[in-house]
Write a structure and sequence with these properties.
Number of helices: 11
Bound molecules: zinc ion
Order of helices and strands: EEEHEEHHEEEEHEHEHEHEHEHEHEHE
């Protein structure tokens, strides 16, 4: 079938909307007609020069839409189901078998390789190869080829156009608190960076009953929103000595610190805020071969730890419907971060995300005319 997709070609960070051909689904594949798709920093990182994903490529990994075709082996979803698309995993490695799919041994090739595991692509342009399968979806397009295993069925009454970011950014932040940290009522949490991931973590910290929730950012407007969404304290890293303030607020430091900035000097401050037995988590790498100096005495005495967290350790097929439920009850208002753009304005949406004007841009697709 013919689809419209935003294609990133060589030596450009501009996405051009083109007509591509999408193959019919194979045995375990599902075609989803997108209703909307979020823009995540990982899309932006890979659209910049030096991005690791091979080009030409269709990015996009926060898709939400409706299943329109399924491969012959697909049983878990059916045509007409509303779904959110999430990351891909192999389901056969030691991590997947242990239920830790976000640490799948094949995470990198399956999500950033630009191809199916057999090296093929479902996408082409007049016969020439276009890389796809970005996070097992490539959802900067009117239609995406996903797998049965990475589409998550959601409630029909939920507003599908809002739900795409649950597939990456929102589950990353909320899952870091709920799954990775297993944070409990009464704990203390600091979240560094009040973008979509950080604010999702703040909302989750409120949900689980954290006693102190410190949001840290450089922009007062984001800190105001963090306060609205559950932060008990806010610190502006441009003005405040964030380590000293965090220690003053908590007495002996924080049980959990989540970094969403990937800035090494900031991450060092985050580790310095930890209470004994505290955990410092980070959700993205600064890129390349960057290293983070560990204050060994501080980490050892007090048994503090540091860990990387991918996709909030989330098992998407249970975690995303739970977040939808909490949203529908008004207890997880992640829609406060979202601004919609027409799909055709994708480059503007990316620019607004980079400049910080918008926390979570979501691209909306024209819907087919209703038939009576
Ligand atoms: Zn695996
Ligand atoms: Zn993402």
């Amino acid at each position: 079938m013919k689809i419209q997709a935003a294609v990133l070609r060589e030596a450009s960070s501009h996405l051009g909307i083109e007509t591509l051909t999408l193959e019919p689904p194979r045995n375990d594949e599902v075609i989803v007609r997108l209703v909307a798709t979020g823009v995540c920093h990982t899309d932006i990182k890979h659209s910049e020069p030096g991005g690791a994903v091979p080009r030409p490529v269709v990015l996009g990994h926060e898709g939400a839409g409706v299943v329109i075709a399924t491969g012959s082996g697909v049983t878990r979803v059916a045509v007409g189901d509303p779904v959110v698309l999430s990351y891909d995993y192999c389901n056969t490695c030691a991590s997947c078998l242990a239920g830790a799919r976000t640490y799948c041994h094949e995470l990198r090739p399956r999500n950033f390789g630009g191809k199916r595991p057999d090296g093929s692509s479902a996408l082409s342009s007049e016969g020439s190869f276009i890389h796809g399968s970005f996070f097992g979806q490539s959802s900067f397009a009117t239609h995406a080829m996903a797998y049965e295993r990475n589409v998550v069925k959601v409630a029909r009454e939920a507003p599908l156009e809002l739900l795409g970011p649950l597939g990456c950014g929102v589950q990353t932040g909320a899952g870091a608190i709920i799954n990775a940290f297993s944070a409990r009522a009464g704990c203390t949490v600091a979240v560094i960076g009040s973008g979509a991931v950080g604010l999702s973590a703040v909302m989750a910290a409120r949900l689980i009953g954290a006693r102190r929730i410190i949001a840290i950012d450089l922009h007062d407007n984001r800190l105001d929103l963090a306060r609205d969404l559950g932060a008990t304290h806010v610190l502006n890293a441009g003005r405040d000595d964030i380590v000293r303030e965090a220690l003053a607020i908590t007495g002996h430091g924080l049980d959990y610190v989540l970094d969403t900035t990937t800035l090494v000097p900031v991450m060092e401050k985050g580790m310095a805020m930890l209470a004994p037995r505290g955990v410092f988590g980070f959700v993205a790498g600064p890129g390349g071969s960057a290293t983070l100096p560990l204050p060994l005495g501080h980490m050892l005495i007090g048994g503090r730890s540091v860990r990387g967290i991918i996709e909030g350790d989330s098992a998407s097929e249970t975690f995303i419907p739970m977040l939808v439920d909490l949203f529908m009850q008004g207890r997880f208002p992640f829609d406060r971060m979202i601004r919609f753009y027409p799909f055709a304005h994708i480059n503007e949406a990316i620019a607004d995300s980079i400049s910080g004007r918008v926390i979570k841009p979501v691209l909306r697709f024209d819907q087919p005319a209703a038939t009576s």
